[in-house]
Specification:
The structure is a homodimer. Chain A is α/β, with parallel strands linked by helices. Chain A has ten helices and twelve strands. In chain A, the strands form three sheets. Chain A has an eight-stranded mixed sheet with strand order 1-4-8-5-9-10-11-12, with helices on both faces. A two-stranded antiparallel sheet of chain A has the order 2-3. In chain A, strands 6-7 form a two-stranded parallel sheet. In chain A, helix 1 crosses helix 2, helix 3 runs antiparallel to helix 5 and helix 3 packs antiparallel against helix 8. The longest helix of chain A has 18 residues. The N terminus of chain A is likely disordered.
Chain lengths: 384, 384
């Protein structure tokens, strides 16, 4: 007997949890295939002004979604970036109109492997085409067009969100005034590809994955997906933070158990990360989105010269990195700044001292808040 | 239908592949249980002199074994440390008598979960007691006693082998002249426990693991064990080495495939690491040995004061670490040196510049070879 599927795609088309638009397309993808129609699930916060000049697009990370500043419909938890986005926050929704869209390939309502393939009426599963960061950005541009916004005030995102920000600036330089890529890189490193491949192998090794067709099999590769999440989670946190937070502390016990059940707090913490993740995320989406990150290499689109991606760019950049981020270390963020300097683009670069690792961009980091707030004030003034 | 088990325990009791001794015991373990009898599979190289004063014990790492300088009976490959151990090598078998024993809990002939439980005649599987680094060292001491060696010239090992070296010095300070712990720590960090737990979860999530009873079920958790190995392998290599060696190079193709099969060389390399590992290693042994490493905390045996583990120690120490080792970073090796300094022990500490990461201790590192050669020369002279 197999477990019942734990992940159930939520209804995201009702107004209380978010919006969704289905556009005719076609959206031609990097792999050569097309999607038509294309559904994009998104949320908005704040009010679009009459000039449509105050719109900011937020791009989410690998396991994020469109619920940037509103409660998550599955977990009931607050949005994933309420510290950054909201009334009076650095991305101030009293002033700005904030849009956040679920990436294509995702599992929160945008077209992806959990959605029905129009050709068969069945979930796409692995028949869904492989998508890239550029394809995600193409879909977002379709949404921005649909909303009638000529020029975004800014595009902002961390991690995979930062990759999308860079791609926006490279693909549509006249459609945004400012770009804030945080804790990211212009290409995925060998080590990062390696960690992603471990996660994918963990999912595909789970017999309940059923070659991707678990939705129609009534199974769910929860164990494999949990292992993938646990492995990935380690990379989101710094060694120092793990040591400070957990060290070798035991979980609800005074002595080692001499059993294989979790003895250490760090083990229980990882288990919790795994089990809560599978309740809200889809295994095939995890495969597709990690692959999109692995494929990301902005320089490759420009014969290996990253600077050429930003030649004559009118965009103003603000690059933010964190000292203890070992997934996207400051050196990789700095390479983006170097490339921008090489073409005399307007760029500022900040390396924030933090021991919180990659996840710092989602946490309480006052220097990041001040940086983004100050940068957006400046950009908004320039735009007037 | 399930795959046939790929891992088959080799016969290690014939002279051509190694030696084994079965001792009555009992060996009382840290968990309170006892093993009786205890089989220890080992190899020797070189000749024990009449005074029995030239014996060096080599301790192997997590996935190592007793075949330190002789061909491996399953893979046919040369021993795992032929660069360090052999005629004319830093651990010169023309001069020294080298002993290397498979740890208890291992799968190359020493008493472990793959062996028959005398109480049932069936493989122990998870009925095998949890063992610790100190238990491994207790078993090694039984072997050294059996060989009639009063005092080892040196105990040497890297990674988990280094943990055993430290434990030897702490538990039996009068039984060794010198200790060479390489690329190790006096306690396993939260991050390292986390990576091990991911590996264990990957194994236990594999339905072919069968609650550990795969040997009697005719199954083998090869997929789970391969995922565990892949995740662990990333931690053995530095980010710089992965980038230098693989970068984003594609494997036998000119362009991205837009499929989930390996596109990148780093992916193929990881798959290879996983698949060759399951041919030579046992999944339950992997659970037991990783747990032993997680439990290691030498200071904990001494009320949290590491220095007290080495109080009045007559042992001479040579600690070797590698600059790019992020599994056991130089700072953790240095803590051992600090503790030894605090009790005025004889200690030298070397941090070798290398971009090869943790695995540097197994690779061509001339500075390590020179350090170990020089140190052993000195110790051997003192011993005369």
């Amino acid at each position: 007997m197999t477990d019942a599927p734990r992940f159930v795609r939520p209804v995201t088309r009702s107004a209380d949890v978010g919006l969704a638009v289905t556009l005719d397309g076609p959206l031609t993808l990097d792999c050569g295939r097309t999607l038509a129609p294309v559904t994009i699930a998104y949320t908005t916060c704040g009010t679009l002004n009459a000039a449509k000049s105050n719109a900011i697009l937020i791009c989410h990370a690998l396991t994020g979604d469109q619920f940037v500043a509103s409660d998550h419909p599955i977990t009931g938890k607050p949005g994933w970036w309420t510290s950054m986005v909201g009334p009076g926050k650095p991305v101030d929704t009293d002033r700005f109109f904030v849009i956040c869209a679920n990436v294509i390939g995702g599992c929160m309502g945008s077209t992806g492997p959990t959605e029905a393939d129009p050709a068969t009426g069945q979930p796409y599963a692995l028949d869904f085409p492989l998508i890239t960061i550029r394809d995600m950005v193409r879909a977002q541009k379709m949404l921005v067009d649909h909303l009638g916004i000529d020029k975004l005030l800014a595009v902002i995102g961390g991690s995979m969100g930062g990759m999308q920000v860079l791609q926006w600036a490279a693909s549509y330089p006249t459609r945004l005034r400012a770009a804030v890529p945080i804790a990211c890189a212009a290409r995925h490193s060998a080590q990062n590809i390696a960690f992603h491949e471990v996660g994918r192998q963990a999912i595909m090794a789970d017999p309940d994955w059923q070659g991707g067709k678990y939705a129609t099999s009534g199974t769910s590769p929860s164990k494999g997906l949990a292992v993938a999440r646990m492995a990935a989670h380690i990379t989101y946190v710094s060694e120092a933070a793990l040591q400070r937070k957990f060290g070798r502390n035991l979980q609800n016990r005074a002595a080692l158990s001499f059993q294989f059940a979790p003895d250490f707090q760090i083990e229980s913490y990882l288990h919790h990360q795994g089990s809560t993740f599978v309740d809200r995320f889809d295994a095939n989406s995890y495969l597709y989105i990690t692959r999109a990150m692995d494929y990301f290499d902005l320089a490759a689109e420009h014969d290996g010269v990253l600077a050429d991606a930003f030649k004559d760019s009118p965009v103003r950049f603000c690059i933010v990195s964190f000292s203890s981020d070992w997934l996207f270390p400051p050196s990789e963020n700095k390479q983006i700044a170097h490339a921008l300097n090489a073409v005399a683009a307007k760029v500022s670069f900040v390396e924030i001292k933090s021991d919180k690792g990659h996840d710092a961009f989602l946490l309480h980091e006052p220097e990041m808040f001040d940086t983004v707030r100050g940068f957006l004030n400046h950009v908004a003034m320039e735009a007037q």
